[in-house]
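Q: What structure does this chain adopt?
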Amino acid sequence: MKKQITIAMMIFSVVMFSQKKKNGTIYKEHPAITVVEAMQQAFIKGDTIALAGYLADDFRAFNGMNNNPDAKGQSKSNFLKNSDFWSKNISYLSIARQGEAYPDAIEYNGDDGLWVQTWDYLRGVHDETGVKIDQPIHRLFVVNKDNKILRMITYDDDAIWSNLRQSFTPRTNGTLYNHHENINKVLRMVAALEHSDVDKAFSFFTDDARFSNLDMANDEFHTVAEEKEGFTKMLDNWTIESIDVRGYPDYLEYELGNAKVVQSWWDFRVKRKSDGKKITIPVMLVHNFNDDGMITNEMGYYTTQAMAAK
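A:
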């Protein structure tokens, strides 16, 4: 049996090693990498004369996220026009290597050309719409033997470009209410807090609701139990004199994402029991509701730092 196992392991090793086959060479530094990076800088600067010199006459640029099998790509002349448009309509435009990433030049056995792959970061702000371009971008290039770029394939986040395209014309995104049952629930919830009715106040939230405020880190939140405990402890040292609404709450039913949100503005008026010191804390609350009319999330735009002052 031991002999059979040994033979089997040897056969397995031979099979594994036989599956390896070298198919070219990868370069960390190569003239083709220099050409590719120089081309990209010329593109964002709108230097179409220099840009044209880096491209082969039959250059084509493709969107790697386009699944149309008949896509012909963008021609050299259109690519040059695109560069001119970008440079004149996008401010603060830049493209640079992303973090510690660096390009690779790959020379495959039997291919006439050479591939360059890049991992960069693209930034800018569209002048007319104010849409911010801030995203990683991955590209594949084919560079011919004359060191001219023959093909470019881009992989990026199309959501940014979609948002940009849609930002040229006004569009609605739901309905805004100044009276709604979800507004009424927020009013009743805050009224319960004003009267220190903790159980009733937190009955408007789902069991897994999350709470955050400006005193917390971005990824920090409280559970219902933690928020309830914190509020109860606050009542040991402070008396709530009143919680007064400022203006009126808004309820928004968004089309995008089907979000249901109540925004409200308040003055929390409290008095410290130890010395009678009175403080007014301006508060903005944002509550997300589910389809059953329960609050799933509360974001409080306030800080309690004033309550720590002597």
